[in-house]
Every structure is written in structure tokens, then in C-alpha cells.
Design goal:
- It contains ten helices and ten strands.
- It has an eight-stranded mixed β-sheet.
- With 347 residues, it is an alpha/beta fold.
- The longest helix has 15 residues.
- α6 packs across α9.
- The N terminus is likely disordered.
């Protein structure tokens, strides 16, 4: 997978408002997950609150560029937030060579006929409806009752994308199976989600601060999927030709208070079921600041925060799709190559 390029999405001057299609869906719940970690209503309220501060929430929008090399008539952006993927797709192709004599490539949005952005937060979904990118592609906004239940027909989309929303799903195997169902044969699912050791610095320092000031521990940072589990989940959902990659993004903050302010602006505050209501006590926050600096602080006085990004690609099975060779049919020994023996030619 090519190196990740992280860029802030800066607000652009507003132009005339373009009428966009917006639909509201209600979906019948096929069954409550057997094990629930997150309060979905709390997460909805957090996203609505984050989107109400338009400029503040725009400052914390980040997105990884993805390569698209074929045309897709209908694409779904699942958990679209403020239509970040749509905005990125209208930018110049990040793979074009600025020093090349060839003309600059057109934006990736020209390879998509129709993009459906789906999210449960209407305020966040429509936050940037007046920005210029809305005029540069055919964009529909669908308001979902819940991202855990997808109200689309089987074989609807030519691709499904998801950027930083799957880590709030309670029943991830069910959602992945639903994504596979609504994809057309030989269509890709491309997603990025927080996982693993994301915010491990904040997690450990808050636990120690709780122990020091209160004599016990309360969960303040949500549990996340491990990269080792993602491939298995994609396979069980029916996806083929899997690709899973991981990257750690470290962001330096002046204080833990600045970090938590950014998390709130992203709509990424704690939403665990059974968590303590109300704000964290002031003495715990002050103790957390000192512990964080002592355990994880940089020499220049800043505080690092790690965001572990898990990237995944899976393809729905289809006719003519590439298949792995049978086990034992390989002609090259990986062991020989790794041990410096090179490729041995048979006489």
C-alpha cells in the first residue's frame, strides 16, 4: 500500500447553494447485537454537537488519499460524517506528477457517476452543503437511523467506502456482512478505522489518575479492534482478495486539554455504555496532565497522541475474479529468499 498522505481539509469560500438530494431512511432492526459496547444514541448526540461548531469541526478533518483506477457508477460512503471523502475526491489527483510534462490529471470524482453519503447525523452530514465541492460531483445525502443497519437492496453499489466510522460499531461482523450484501459482484470495500493502540497514552494516564485520585478505574477511552482481527472479520463476511495495513499517526499537542478538545470537535468523545455521566473531575484531569507529561511527554514540552489507522480492502466474490493458487503449487521458497539464498533454478 502506498505511503499515507495526511492533509487538513481547509474551509473554502462559500458559493451559491446547490440543491442536493437528501433522503431519510427508517430501517427495521434485524436483531440487537448480543454484546453492546457503545451507546449509539450518545454517539449520535456527540456528532450533532461537534457539527454545530462548523469552523471548529472543520479544523480537525483529516483524510487519507486512496487510489481509484476504474470507473464506478454508484458508490456509497458509509459513515460519511461531513462528506469528507466527497470533498477529497474533487481535489486534483494526488498521484499526478507535478514535475511531469503531461497535463495534470482530473480529480478522482470524474471516475464516480453518483456518490451516496450516508450518516446518522443530519447536522454533520449537511455541515458543508454550501461549499464548492458540492457542485463538482453528483452527491446524494442519506440520513440513516443507525449505521449498524443498512437499508439498501442487494447488489446496489459498485464500491463502498468508509472513513473513520467503523470503530463505533457494536456488531462489526454484521455490518461487514451487510456491506458485502449491498455490493455488486467483484466490487470493492475500502475502509479506514481507528484501532489497536489508538490513544494508548491518554488511556494509561487517565487510568493512573483515576487510581491516584479516586482509588478506582473508570473507562474513558473506547476499546478498539486489533489489526490481527480485521482480516478474519472480512473473510467471515464473505470478502475475497483481502488487504489489511496499519499505520501509526502521532500528533503532538501542547496539553491533554487541547487533545481532548480536538477529540470532542471530531465527535470522538467516549460513548461506552455504562460510563460515568458528566465531566471528568477537575482533580483527575489535573493529575492526568502531570502523569501524561511524565510518562509520554516529548523533550520540547509537547504531548504525543498516537492514532493507529487500520486500512482494509476486500472484494465481493464475482465471476472472473482472480483466485489464489492451490496450496503447495508455488515454485519459489520464501525461506530461501529471506535467508539470502535467492531463487534456485531447477535443472
Amino acid at each position: 500500500m502506498k505511503p499515507m498522505s495526511l492533509r487538513p481539509i481547509l474551509p473554502r469560500p462559500a458559493i451559491r447553494r446547490r440543491a442536493t438530494t437528501s433522503r431519510n431512511y427508517a430501517a427495521q432492526t434485524p436483531g440487537v447485537p448480543t454484546f453492546q459496547v457503545f451507546n449509539r444514541n450518545t454517539k449520535y448526540l456527540q456528532k450533532e454537537r461537534a457539527a454545530s461548531d462548523v469552523e471548529g469541526s472543520r479544523k480537525v478533518d483529516y483524510l487519507k488519499d486512496e487510489d481509484i483506477s476504474r470507473h464506478f457508477p454508484h458508490v456509497l460512503d458509509l459513515g460519511a460524517n461531513a462528506c469528507n471523502i466527497a470533498r477529497i475526491l474533487t481535489l486534483p489527483d494526488p498521484d499526478s506528477d507535478p514535475d511531469s510534462s503531461k497535463p495534470a490529471s482530473s480529480s478522482l470524482s470524474t471516475r464516480i457517476s453518483n456518490l451516496t453519503a450516508a450518516d446518522s447525523s443530519s447536522t454533520l452530514l449537511h455541515r458543508d452543503v454550501d461549499l464548492p465541492f458540492n457542485n463538482l460531483l453528483q452527491l446524494n445525502r442519506d440520513i440513516l437511523q443507525d449505521e449498524e443497519f443498512l437499508p439498501y437492496e442487494e447488489n446496489t453499489f459498485d464500491a463502498v467506502l468508509s472513513s473513520l466510522s467503523l470503530h463505533w460499531i457494536n456488531d462489526l461482523p454484521s455490518v461487514l456482512a451487510q456491506v458485502n450484501r449491498i455490493l455488486k459482484p467483484d466490487a470493492p470495500f475500502i475502509a479506514a478505522m481507528f484501532g489497536g493502540d489508538t490513544l494508548f497514552e491518554l488511556r494509561t494516564s487517565l487510568q493512573l489518575a483515576d487510581l491516584d485520585r479516586r482509588g478506582g478505574v473508570s473507562p474513558h477511552v473506547s476499546p478498539l479492534a486489533d489489526v490481527r482481527d480485521v482480516g478474519g472479520l472480512l473473510g467471515k463476511a464473505g470478502f475475497k482478495m483481502l488487504t489489511v495495513d496499519v499505520d501509526d499517526i502521532i500528533v503532538d499537542y501542547p496539553s491533554t486539554f487541547a487533545l481532548m478538545t480536538d477529540l470532542q470537535a471530531m465527535g470522538e468523545s467516549n460513548a461506552i455504555l455504562g460510563r460515568e455521566q458528566g465531566a471528568i473531575r477537575r482533580d483527575v484531569l489535573l493529575a492526568n496532565e502531570g502523569i501524561y507529561r511524565e510518562l509520554h511527554g516529548n523533550k520540547d514540552g509537547t504531548l504525543p497522541a498516537t492514532f493507529r489507522m487500520i486500512y482494509m480492502i476486500g472484494w465481493k466474490e464475482g465471476n472472473g475474479q482472480a483466485e489464489p493458487l492451490p496450496r503447495g503449487s508455488g515454485m519459489v521458497s520464501i525461506k530461501d529468499i529471506l535467508e539470502g539464498g535467492g531463487i534456485k533454478e531447477e535443472n
